[in-house]
Amino acid sequence: MTKKRIFVLNGHPAAESLTGSVAESYAQAAKDAGHEVRVMNLHDMEFDPDYGTGSYVNMKPLEPELEQVLQDIEWSNHVVLATPMWWGGVPAKLKGVFDRAFLPGRTFDTRNKTTIGLPAPLLTGRTGRVIIMSDTPKWFFRLAYRNALMVQLRGQILGFIGIKPLKFTHFNGASEPKPGKVERWLKKAATIGAQAV
């Protein structure tokens, strides 16, 4: 198996969370399998998540934590994001990472366009995995919401900057998991971590 450079971002803003446990299970299994792994935890990051009105001309300087996120993505060839789904999206602080750090000239190029006229992605050559923790049942998420969060992350955020293909793992019933579920989720995260997929 080819050894990979894996960046894991635990996108839960709390110091202790099920999302964090799942991210750690993935990261540890990947390390044990011989992959190089870097981990960042959203709860450890100090930065202003508000993009404000600076525009692309007058951007706020990136805090060290945001610069580190970019450096870790640039270093990696596989990016893993573990996130809860809150109100149909990611936590506000995690959205702030995307708003502040995913900027033109570093993650996409507005001067060059894709064949369909979108800015060219600058972080191609990296695969990705998103692990979503939610209460929404998979069937309802798919039929009622049309997998909206997955569509956004694939097409408008991670895929937009070049991270593809992007695979998803969705664990639901996270607030009140049935007996044995957490153990199965951690095992599943370890399995895909060891395979670096």
Descriptive overview:
- This protein has one domain (5-195): Flavodoxin domain (Rossmann fold, 3-Layer(aba) Sandwich).
- It contains 6 helices and 7 strands; from the N terminus they run βαβαβαβββααβα.
- The protein has helices at 18-32, 64-75, 92-101, 138-143, 148-157, 181-195; strands at 5-10, 36-41, 78-84, 108-113, 119-121, 126-134, 163-172.
- Helix 1 links the parallel strand 1 (5-10) and strand 2.
- The radius of gyration is 17 Å and the shape is globular.
Summarize the structure.
By secondary structure, the chain is of the alpha/beta class.
Tell the overall outline. globular
Q: In order across it, which strands form the biggest sheet?
A: 2-1-3-6-7
Number of strands: 7
Binned, the helix content reads 25-40%
- Secondary-structure element string: EHEHEHEEEHHEH
By DSSP (H or I, 4+ residues per run), the number of helices equals: 6
Report Rg.
Answer: 17 Å
> Could you name the CATH topology?
Rossmann fold
Structural class: alpha/beta
The CATH class is identified as Alpha Beta
Strand content range: 15-25%
Low-confidence stretches: none
What's the CATH architecture name? 3-Layer(aba) Sandwich
Largest sheet: 5 strands, parallel
Whole-number total of structural domains: 1
Query: Ends: how far apart?
Result: 12 Å
The average pLDDT is: 95
Can you say what the CATH homologous superfamily is?
Flavodoxin domain
Family: Belongs to the NAD(P)H dehydrogenase (quinone) family.
Domain Flavodoxin-like fold: 4-183
Keywords: Oxidoreductase
Protein name: Putative NADPH-quinone reductase
